[in-house]
């Protein structure tokens, strides 16, 4: 614990002391490590946290380096004048690139970045005005307040200062409302959108940030190396950056330095010794890297830093929550018995199968309505229509007297309709409280820049306090700082309810909340739902467990073959001949 | 620059020949992805290795692919033996590994023997293909099978790592020099005033045969149906007695064979270096992506049009040929993103 707390300070102190004790040669290598670390850090944000992988970061490093090289050599600008130019070009370029690429699912993005990396290499190499394959040389050194950075030690100080600043910024972003939205991406687009997160926006943000970080690295590189050529920005370099991020552990900020340090120094050592060992020249260090990566994924797929942390038993430390944070503003609740949600003639066909035919139901504040039916009756289809996951062929959904116009998961969430998932969807390696705070996303407003400069702390405290309140409400108050994945399935289902409650919902749509729960867990769940009902929330329950439903629900709607066949109190439904027939088969 | 019908015709048939090669690669990539979820970046190495093996056999030199194959066999035996020892079932593990080593060792022996005697070029071509084919299942077993359940992304990163390893091993055993072979068929014919090398016709024909064979295998045979079942639902297929390891092994065998065939064909059209296959393979990817990594016909159409576009790009802006070809992926991906955007994500 104590070692852990002081470790970052030791690291920073060691970084600060290095120029006084190390040789020029060692400092040069450390400068390269620092440069690579910035790019690896950009990939920690993009890949490790946001789940978007890019093999093309080297191309953005190249864009930054070449812009500065050309404008300092040919247009007579100073490096400091080219910096805003680089940022502007890359922000605009990456924004347009992101519009195309972030909509792609899973593996298309990395493939696109491979193609982009190759294409940019040939663009650099084929363009004569930037020196073609030979590149540009004699770039000016950087000056700070008129003082030129001559020695490796001076460049080292600048590069590592920039790196530490970026680490601070990335940590701030991740540890915020925007950061939770980014980290929610790995839980799947559907979960994030259902909690009100604009996933496209989150993806575009991290893509642009990562590209800007890479381009600024290119700017530093160009004026440190004083020479640019296409080889330094090839696809292989882009691959190496991604390897650095995954070796260190793409989920950890310090992993970026660990990965960059390991690969850069290993490369140096292997380049020095391997050819002598094998007696022939060749890029044996590349072979060694490839093998290391393959072996790593066979034995520690989560990366070195995460593997070591797990071995040491380091888990997320509890943060101090502000006791004085004001409560977030709440919606005006519906009066008990008010009609809050209504579906009228919802229909959906998949090919020839009419999964929902004219399904209509009403849901009132302070009521538990259960939707039951045999397998294939269309319950899940209706649930998907009501939560905006699938578009209905016909029908209307009304929330508190207003037709729902934006019938998408995010639009539905914005109205204050919370949902849970049949198969639990949460972020197992994130803490319980942060998982729940995702639900409160739309109740906060602070964005990226506030987070970056820590101007969001007041609101952040409110959001976490709200998550804590909801967790205490559902009885998980003791588990705030545990990893969500460490909870039992029953607790994870309850966590999803707490997350939905963080939306400050009027309506809760629960998709088989009792599935897979043990008897006592079911009892606790029933107790919780009764409490929520008493607090005026309208609850729609899709459920298989008859015993659970009949003891809990105020009204039951029964579906079969896509249509509603019965509706009434549990007792009425249980004695309805059509329902008995549907469940037990016909008498003839 | 005005283009005469003659030049246009020439560029078109030339592009079509490259397109036919990309078609083969695109199909192999699509096949492997469908059966294993592996994005096979090392597909290009099969191409280079086969081409260089073929060229060296013709010169009666010992192809370095033998060393790579022997190295892979040795590593496989060591890794599986060690893993067996760890689990306390060393004998069974070693026996399994040895069985898997038999065919590659035979292929290596065959290739070594062939390099010592004079044989017709076509026989060398077949031997080079056998040699490279032996690598496919071996790589699957060694690298991918232990992590078959990992995410597409992890498999992709591992693929990139394997590509780096193989390409550098290729540099080590083949050296930096390229190789080019005589066409299997030397005569030329003229259609509508445009001379067409018979080698181009061979490429069209072989590609068509491979495509047809793949189609018959996957649609008309029980084995092909079993493979597709394993791709769609591994657990269900296993319950029916189809193992996903078998499906993966087969996919890699087919991919290696197809890659090797295109390597042998390509070596008569262009100079092949140890790393040429990678760029050819990437073009196969661009085409495979047009087909959404799922549709064989769309991938084939994509590959053919890619070849033709490349041919014209080389004529008008040769310095930017590769840049143009790889930038094409952006509009293609944009189009696919509009077609496939879904809320529900696969993983």
Q: Sheet bearing the most strands of chain A, described?
A: 6 strands, mixed
Largest sheet of chain B: 2 strands, antiparallel
Distance between the termini of chain A: 71 Å
Q: List the quaternary state of the chains.
A: heterodimer
State mean pLDDT of chain A (0 to 100 scale).
89
Count of DSSP-assigned helices of chain B: 14
Kindly state the percentage of residues in helix of chain A. Answer: 55-70%
Distance between the termini of chain B: 50 Å
Q: Give the SSE string of chain B.
A: HHHHHHEEHHHHHHHH
Annotation field: number of helices of chain A: 23
- Greatest interface and its participating residue counts: A-B, 47 and 50 residues
Global Rg of chain A: 28 Å
Q: Pairing-aware structural class of the strands and helices of chain A?
A: alpha/beta
Shape of chain B: globular
- Mean pLDDT across residues of chain B: 85
Tally of DSSP β-strands of chain B: 2
Helix coverage percent of residues of chain B? over 70%
Strand order of the largest sheet of chain A: 10-11-12-7-13-14
Task: Give the percentage of residues in beta strands of chain A.
Answer: 5-15%
Low-confidence stretches of chain A: none
């Amino acid at each position: 614990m104590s070692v852990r707390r002081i470790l970052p300070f030791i690291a920073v102190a060691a970084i600060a002391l290095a120029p006084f004790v190390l040789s020029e040669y060692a400092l040069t290598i450390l400068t390269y490590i620092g440069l690579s670390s910035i790019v690896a850090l950009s990939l920690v944000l993009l890949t490790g946290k946001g789940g978007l992988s890019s093999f093309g970061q080297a191309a953005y490093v190249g864009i930054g380096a070449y812009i500065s090289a050309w404008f300092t050599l040919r247009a007579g600008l100073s490096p400091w004048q080219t910096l805003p130019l680089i940022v502007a070009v890359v922000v605009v370029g990456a924004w347009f690139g992101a519009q195309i690429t972030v909509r792609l699912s899973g593996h298309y993005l990395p493939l696109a970045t491979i193609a982009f990396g190759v294409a940019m290499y040939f663009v650099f190499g084929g363009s004569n005005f930037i020196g073609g394959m030979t590149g540009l040389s004699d770039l000016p050194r950087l000056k700070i307040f008129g003082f030129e950075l001559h020695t490796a030690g001076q460049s080292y100080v600048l590069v590592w200062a920039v790196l530490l600043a970026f680490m601070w910024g990335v940590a701030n972003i991740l540890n915020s409302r925007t950061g939770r939205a980014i980290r929610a991406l790995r839980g799947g687009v559907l979960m994030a959108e259902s909690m009100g997160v604009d996933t496209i926006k989150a993806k575009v943000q991290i893509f642009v940030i990562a590209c800007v970080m890479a381009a600024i690295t290119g700017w530093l590189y160009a004026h440190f190396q004083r020479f640019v050529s296409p080889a330094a920005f090839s696809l292989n370099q882009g691959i190496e950056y991604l390897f650095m991020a995954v070796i260190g552990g793409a989920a950890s900020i310090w992993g970026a330095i660990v990965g960059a340090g390991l690969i850069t120094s290993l490369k140096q050592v292997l380049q020095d010794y391997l050819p002598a060992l094998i007696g022939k020249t060749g890029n044996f260090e590349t072979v060694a890297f490839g093998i290391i990566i393959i072996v790593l994924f066979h034995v520690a797929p989560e990366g070195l830093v995460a593997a070591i942390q797990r071995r040491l038993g380091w888990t997320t430390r509890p943060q101090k929550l502000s006791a004085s944070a004001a409560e977030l503003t709440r919606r005006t609740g519906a009066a008990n018995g008010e009609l809050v949600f209504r579906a009228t003639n919802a229909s959906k066909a998949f090919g020839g199968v009419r999964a929902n035919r004219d399904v209509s139901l009403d849901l009132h504040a302070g009521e538990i309505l259960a939707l039951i039916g045999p397998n294939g009756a269309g319950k899940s289809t209706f649930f998907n229509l009501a939560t905006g996951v699938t578009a209905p062929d016909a029908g209307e959904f009304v929330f508190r007297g207003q037709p729902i116009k934006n019938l998408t998961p995010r639009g539905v969430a914005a109205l204050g309709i919370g949902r849970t998932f049949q198969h639990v969807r949460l972020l197992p390696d994130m803490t319980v409280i942060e998982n729940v705070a995702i639900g409160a996303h739309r109740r906060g407003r602070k964005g990226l820049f506030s987070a970056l400069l820590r101007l969001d702390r007041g609101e952040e405290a409110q959001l976490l306090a709200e998550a804590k309140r909801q967790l205490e409400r559902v009885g998980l108050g003791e588990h705030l700082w545990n990893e969500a994945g460490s909870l039992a399935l029953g607790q994870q289902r309850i966590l999803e309810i707490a997350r939905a409650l963080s939306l400050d919902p009027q309506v809760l749509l629960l998709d088989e909340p009792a599935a897979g729960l043990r008897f006592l867990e079911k009892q606790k769940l029933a107790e919780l739902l009764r409490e929520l009902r008493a607090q005026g929330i309208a609850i729609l329950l899709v459920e298989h467990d008859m015993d659970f439903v009949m003891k809990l629900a105020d009204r039951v709607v029964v579906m079969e073959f896509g249509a509603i066949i019965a509706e009434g109190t549990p007792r009425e439904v249980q004695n309805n001949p059509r329902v008995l027939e549907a469940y037990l088969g016909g008498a003839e | 620059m005005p283009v005469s019908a003659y030049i246009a015709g020439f560029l078109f048939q030339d592009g079509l020949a490259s397109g036919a090669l990309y078609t083969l690669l695109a199909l192999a990539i699509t096949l492997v992805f469908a059966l294993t979820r592996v994005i096979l970046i090392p597909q290009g190495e099969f191409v280079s290795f086969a081409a260089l093996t073929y060229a060296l056999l013709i010169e009666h030199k010992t192809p370095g692919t033998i060393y790579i194959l022997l190295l892979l066999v040795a590593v496989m035996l060591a890794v599986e033996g060690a893993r067996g020892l760890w689990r306390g079932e060393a004998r069974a593990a070693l026996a399994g590994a040895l069985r898997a080593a038999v065919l590659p060792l035979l292929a290596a022996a065959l290739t070594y023997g062939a390099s010592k005697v004079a044989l017709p070029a076509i026989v060398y071509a077949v031997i080079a293909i056998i040699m490279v084919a032996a690598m496919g299942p071996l790589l699957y077993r060694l690298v991918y099978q232990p992590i078959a359940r990992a995410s597409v992304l992890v498999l992709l990163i591992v693929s990139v790592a394997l590509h780096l390893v193989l390409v550098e091993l290729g540099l080590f055993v083949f050296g930096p020099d390229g190789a080019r072979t005589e066409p299997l068929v030397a005569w030329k014919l003229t259609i509508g005033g445009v001379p067409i090398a018979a080698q181009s016709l061979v490429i069209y024909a072989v590609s068509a045969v491979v495509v047809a064979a793949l189609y018959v295998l996957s649609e008309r045979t029980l084995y092909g149906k079993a493979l597709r079942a394993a791709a769609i639902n591994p657990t269900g297929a296993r319950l029916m007695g189809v193992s996903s390891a078998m499906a993966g092994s087969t996919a890699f065998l087919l991919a290696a064979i197809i890659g090797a065939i295109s390597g042998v064909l390509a070596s008569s059209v262009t100079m092949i270096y140890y790393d040429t296959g990678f760029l050819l393979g990437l073009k196969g990817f661009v085409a495979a992506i047009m087909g959404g990594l799922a549709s064989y016909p769309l991938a084939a159409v994509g590959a053919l049009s890619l070849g033709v576009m490349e041919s014209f790009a080389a004529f008008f802006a040769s310095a930017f040929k590769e840049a143009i070809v790889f930038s094409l992926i952006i509009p293609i991906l944009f189009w696919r993103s509009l077609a496939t955007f879904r809320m529900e994500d696969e993983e």
